[in-house]
TrEMBL record, chain A:
Enzyme superclass (EC): transferase
Name of the protein: DNA polymerase III PolC-type
PANTHER family hit by this protein: DNA POLYMERASE III SUBUNIT EPSILON, PROTEIN NEN2
GO CC annotations, alphabetized: cytosol
Superkingdom of origin organism: Bacteria
UniProt cross-references to SMART domains, sorted A to Z: EXOIII (SM00479)
Organism: Meiothermus luteus
Keywords: Exonuclease, Hydrolase, Nuclease, Nucleotidyltransferase, Transferase
UniProt-listed Enzyme Commission number(s): 2.7.7.7
A Pfam family this chain is assigned to: RNase_T
Gene3D superfamilies: Ribonuclease H-like superfamily/Ribonuclease H (3.30.420.10)
Signal peptide: none
Residues covered by the Exonuclease domain: 23-201
TrEMBL record, chain B:
All residue ranges annotated as the Cyclic nucleotide-binding domain in the record: 12-111
Keywords: CBS domain, Transferase
Record's keyword annotation contains Transferase: yes
Residue ranges constituting the CBS domain according to the UniProt record: 151-206, 213-270
Origin: domain of life: Bacteria
Ranges in coiled-coil conformation: none
Species classification: Bacteria, Thermotogati, Deinococcota, Deinococci, Thermales
Entry-linked InterPro entries: CBS_dom (IPR000644), CBS_dom_sf (IPR046342), cNMP-bd_dom (IPR000595), cNMP-bd_dom_sf (IPR018490), Diverse_CBS-Domain (IPR051257), DUF294_put_nucleoTrafse_sb-bd (IPR018821), GlnD_Uridyltrans_N (IPR005105), RmlC-like_jellyroll (IPR014710)
Protein name per Swiss-Prot or TrEMBL: Putative nucleotidyltransferase substrate binding domain protein
Organism, as annotated: Meiothermus luteus
GO molecular function, one term: [protein-PII] uridylyltransferase activity
Gene3D superfamilies: CBS-domain (3.10.580.10), Jelly Rolls (2.60.120.10)
Length: 208, 600
């Protein structure tokens, strides 16, 4: 799946940029489950520009599912999205272009990138849209890098947990409202700012 | 909690209407600063943002010295934004810092909401007041000005061989209420003298001025600050004050000048005390005294200066009462001293507080015991009528009226074989000060001066001084009870107690807290920096308490030691926290030094 990711040559060159010169779009999806038959229910994203999170430029939308009859009660309990709210929501055909319009000019920032990428790519396929060539930074991967880094310095150090909430807590970030696409995206963005600092990464290229 | 909910709960954002919260949301940026990094730099680029701490703490440093700590929910960066000048502090992330921030344009859009804006500008005004004494200027009399500025005409002199008739004619022609008498020592003749010493005594117009003038006249340098000149006149009981500069007299100021300029001058009250003929005249004294206090505070005086003025007046009240008693009951059978303790002894009284007083007399005879117990009863009763409530602990002359030998015995007992409970109560006796009487307290002073060698006494006193602790919780947060903080228990009393220990260690007989701290620093018992910090904290807390108490009186409430945190500006909250932190540090180091936890 990752082999399918193609990078335009310009992107490779731009990897020499200072990290804060790039725009990062932290993104999170709430879905009805984790299998390939599950559906996207909401999208939240917000940018990091000039090294700071621009909260005011966030985008958040519920997504009207194609097969509402397939939604399970557990899913509703987990993300507190009620089926009635979804009926009013725009369909994926309208939401996805809004997402890509923003993300196209930046780097995508995800926590456990595979999961959300799989959903996004499947959505592209179903809508007959090409997958835009964006770079992806995965904060879960950065946590793993920080763990390796720490292990070299302190062999007996307790490794940081990889989950978003647990990693944030271990690194001293405040608790956030989980299972909401926008707040999870914001939590990812904050975690990214901290991890980049801890890892001492200065250029865009060093983040991948 | 989502970011906007968080912001909405923090001052001053909680004052914004819903429409403004949308601007807050649109303009919100979130940034991260690792521990040790500088968010703003003293003298560096001016602040581009208003910052609100979401997580972590920052410290404000000046010349590398930490001045202040800020924590979650507190704002910074705005002084530089408002003044358009470089930051006055380094702002350093004490721990990893997650901040919310808004750019200058958004900040300005929010400043159109008056309540929000007042939060920032109020803090600014307060900072200005520290240097410019704005309030006094508003009243028309800045009490920190040199007294020489009040001189409106050159002094009027008569020759040394003049008669009182010539002097009186000159005073009429020149429209002055006093003349100076040429030559050495400098003399002064006032219209009061013409009445009391000439007419009332049946002297004639040809009486030489030399016979009735006051000489040497009490003078002050023209550069003396107004409030000190005022204090000097109150203490000396004079109404005319010649001012000198470069060895010559440049003018005379009269108390009427002060009184005209300042409706509630201490001199008004002093005049009133002078006229007191019986106890009934004392009604309303307390109300007038709080008016005087308010005037002095508004005049920009430091609380220590106000305390001196107020104590001087209260001392005068005691002297008047004792004078009334003696006029009625005849002269005392032996020498005595009227003592005051606690804040009165330290001259740190501002508003009326409980009475803390005692009587010492020279010899134990049945006659003396009878006389002085009557005197104690009369004066204590007079003070109650004047508005001083009786001391709940019973530290009043009616109970503490003893011969000197017994007092010395009592102090020796405390110093040589102290018990913790006794010392908790006896601490304030070490703040004694003589207000009236001819008896020398030298034997008592000698005991106190020797406490520096009494390790066990000092250790117990140190422990007693730790009885009250600043109300600080985790993360250096001020712990409020019922929304308020007790300034006395949490700050003032701990500093007073610390200063007492340090001063006694240094063998100093100083009583005022500020003087004790300075004496301890001079003797090397306390670092100069530590002493100055405590002195500043003390002044801040006293001033804050006084302001709150005056406001309470105005609202018709009983003055208390509590202040509501919401009523303070952000700057005052910071200062309060800083003051508490310093006190805690000093208490910890004193405790470690004496290992007070290991005392039985």
């Amino acid at each position: 799946m990752f082999a399918a990711l193609r990078w335009p040559k310009a992107s490779w060159r731009s990897r020499g940029l200072a990290w804060w010169e790039a725009t990062y779009w932290a993104l999170d999806l709430e879905t009805s489950g984790l299998s390939s038959s599950d559906q996207i229910l909401s999208v939240g994203l917000l940018p990091i520009q000039g090294g700071a999170i621009a909260y005011g430029a966030h985008y958040y939308s519920l997504v009207r599912p194609r097969r509402p009859e397939a939604l399970s009660a557990e899913g509703v309990r987990a993300h507190h999205i009620l089926p009635a709210e979804l009926e009013e929501a725009p369909p994926l055909e309208e939401v996805l272009p809004e997402v890509f319009r923003r993300v196209a000019q930046g780097v995508l920032l995800l926590h456990f990138a595979q999961v959300d990428l799989a959903f996004l790519k499947r959505a592209c396929r179903e809508l007959g849209q090409p997958w835009p060539a964006v770079g992806v930074v995965d904060t879960a991967v950065l946590v793993a890098r920080l763990n390796r880094h720490r292990a070299r310095l302190e062999p007996h150090a307790q490794p940081l947990p990889s989950g978003l909430r647990a990693a944030r807590e271990a690194l001293g970030l405040p608790p956030h409202l989980e299972h909401h696409a926008l707040w999870d995206a914001l939590a990812t963005a904050e975690l990214f700012l901290l991890l980049r600092e801890r890892l001492g990464l200065r250029t865009l290229g060093q983040l991948f | 909690m989502n970011p906007i909910e968080f912001v909405r709960q923090q001052a001053p954002f909680h004052l914004l209407p819903e429409e403004a919260m949308q601007k807050v949301a649109r303009g919100l940026e979130i940034a991260f600063y690792p521990e040790g990094s500088k968010v703003l730099e003293q003298g560096g680029a001016r602040s581009q943002h208003l910052y609100l701490i979401r997580k972590g703490t920052v410290r404000l440093e000046r010349e590398g010295q930490p001045v202040l700590h800020l924590e979650e929910g507190e704002v910074f960066g705005y002084p530089s934004l408002l003044s358009q000048e470089a930051p006055a502090f380094d702002v350093v992330a004490d721990e990893d810092l997650l901040v919310y921030r808004w750019g200058e344009r958004v900040f300005q859009q929010l400043m159109v909401y008056p309540e929000f804006a007042a939060f920032f500008t109020r803090g600014l005004a307060e900072r200005l007041r520290f240097s410019s004494r704005l309030e006094g200027a508003l009243l028309g009399l800045d009490l920190s000005l040199p007294v020489g500025e009040l001189v409106s005409r050159p002094p009027v002199f008569v020759p040394r061989d003049a008669t009182v008739e010539e002097a009186a004619r000159l005073m009429r022609d020149q429209q002055v209420s006093s003349v100076l008498v040429e030559g050495e020592p400098l003399g002064i003749l006032t219209d009061r003298d013409l009445r009391n010493r000439v007419l009332a005594e049946g002297r004639g117009p040809k009486t030489p001025v030399l016979q009735v003038m006051s000489a040497p006249a009490k003078t002050q340098p023209a550069s003396t600050p107004l409030f000190e000149a005022l204090n000097f006149m109150v203490q000396q009981g004079i109404h005319h004050l010649p001012l000198e500069q470069d060895g010559r007299i440049v003018g005379v100021v009269t108390d009427t000048v002060f009184m005209r300029k300042q409706a509630r001058s201490p001199l008004h009250l002093l005049r009133r005390l002078e006229r007191t003929k019986d106890l009934a005249d004392l009604r309303g004294y307390s109300r007038e005294l709080s008016g005087v206090t308010e005037g002095l505070l508004a005049g920009g005086l430091a609380p220590s200066e106000i305390g001196r003025s107020v104590s001087t007046l209260n001392d005068q009240l005691v002297r008047v009462l004792i004078g009334l008693f003696e006029a009625h009951n005849g002269p005392p059978p032996c020498a005595y001293a009227w003592l005051v303790f606690g804040s009165e002894g330290r001259m740190e009284q501002t508003l009326l507080t409980d009475q803390d007083n005692a009587l010492v007399f020279e010899e134990k005879t049945p006659e003396a015991e009878a006389y002085f117990s009557q005197m104690a009863g009369f004066v204590v009763d007079g003070l109650i009528r004047a508005g001083f409530p009786p001391c709940p602990g019973g530290y009043m002359a009616t109970r503490w009226c003893r011969p000197l030998a017994e007092w010395v015995q009592l102090f020796r007992g405390w110093v040589e074989s102290p018990t913790p409970q006794e010392l908790l109560e006896a601490q304030i006796f070490f703040d004694y000060r003589k207000v009236c009487g001819a008896l020398s307290l030298e034997p008592l002073d000698a005991v106190v001066a020797h406490t520096a060698q009494q390790g066990i006494f000092l250790a117990h006193l140190a422990r007693a001084s730790l009885q009250f602790r600043p109300p600080l919780g985790f993360f250096r947060r001020i712990r409020a009870e019922d929304g308020g903080v007790d300034l006395k228990r949490g700050g003032i009393a701990p500093i007073v107690a610390l200063a007492r220990v340090y001063a006694l260690e240094a063998g100093s007989l100083a009583k005022a807290t500020v003087e004790r701290l300075r004496a301890a620093a001079r003797a090397g018992r306390l670092s100069r920096e530590g002493a100055e910090t405590l002195e500043e904290a003390f002044g801040f807390l006293m001033r804050l308490r006084l302001r709150e108490q005056l406001a309470q009186l105005k609202r018709g409430e009983q003055p208390s030691n509590k202040v509501a945190l919401e009523g303070l500006s952000p700057l005052e909250r910071r200062h309060l926290k800083e003051a508490f932190l310093h006190i805690r540090q000093m208490q910890e180091s004193l405790s470690a030094r004496y290992q007070t936890d290991q005392l039985g």
